[in-house]
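Sample intake sheet
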Amino acid sequence: MGRQPQLQDGCVQTHPKEASMRSMHVIVIGAGTLGLSSALHLAERGVTATVIEADAIASGSSGRSVGVVGTQHVTLLDVELRAYSLRRIREWSGQGLGLGFHPIGYLRLGRSESDRRLFERSLAFQRDCGIGSARILEVAEMRELVPHMSMEGLACGLFGPDDGFLDPHLMCSMLADKVREFGGSIRQQCKLLAAERRGNGFRLVTSAGALDCDGVVIAAGAWASRVAALFGQALPVVPERHEAITIKLDEPLSYIMPMVMDLVYGGGGTGLNFRHQRPDELVAEIHKVTDSLVADPDSYDEGIGEDAKEHLAGLFLERLPILESAGFGRGWAGLYPQTVDGRPLVGLFDDESRLVAAAGAGGYGIQLGPVIGALAADWMINGRPVTVPGAATFRPSEFRLIGATSASVR
């Protein structure tokens, strides 16, 4: 197991090298979950953090997320990452900051005994990480948990009762407020136009003027590769378009439907996921794609197409046939900042400057935001990942094309 992050008085404990970083000024590019979390973790450790955002807080992928917070993953590293994030989200939620976290539970569907073995490994990893409330459900138990769901083709499920969802806009607003409390600043409508090295730091030319700093975190979501190019760096993050829609119910259900995910490590399952949004409303999306949906983040279609509605409706009614009278509500599209192997890119680009990537979270930006922010601060201050040491493989210079596809999930 990697070293567990230590929390004290609501903040990450000071690391050995941090005392010498008190006068450091770091600019974070992007005011989504990853950028604001990076700024907060830097500010908590005494660094002066300035966030610049070309548009407004949560105007990119974060603001179009369905807000899932889930720890039901099946590799050790993925569970370690999410264990840290869940602890921080619980901490913030308990501080009365208006985060809006709803622990309705998260159920990952399994279709085979192979899936069951993966789930058993996940339980062991979760226990080691101190989040041991999850359990494996048999078909009868899943039917009791989600009475409207068809059990056709299912063998078991991995259920975490403490997982849930939150409002991404509220999360970003909360993070921004905390950054300001620690002396940081958020500059909206401030687009990066050019960047150059200045001694040991950088000068950034923005639409609101020039800014000098000691270090930079690139957390620009779907624009991350374009921003990295301004620094002369390659960051292979592809904006992948995904669609979501609300499902209007004839009448409220008699229970709260947890987040249900029909997808297991390696791509098994349809990718459909759904959960309660309001008493008379569900929200659904398809997490994996089979066709290339690479989009231009400046001009992609933000609505949901008829073909997507039909495809989603087919999967939805296959899994929830009793709700055939339900109707579609509001639909929208957002972008997954995706890498070829589905893993984030977090770390220093090189050892010559304090330029850190915090990108490529795919469809997991909300649940990975807190830990990616901590890792970005680790790299900036310590030159290595301290919060989750195993995340050293996320460093951009370690990135290798390994033949994975964007349909793979962890």
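Comment: The two ends are 18 Å apart (CA to CA). The chain is about 25% helix and 25% strand.
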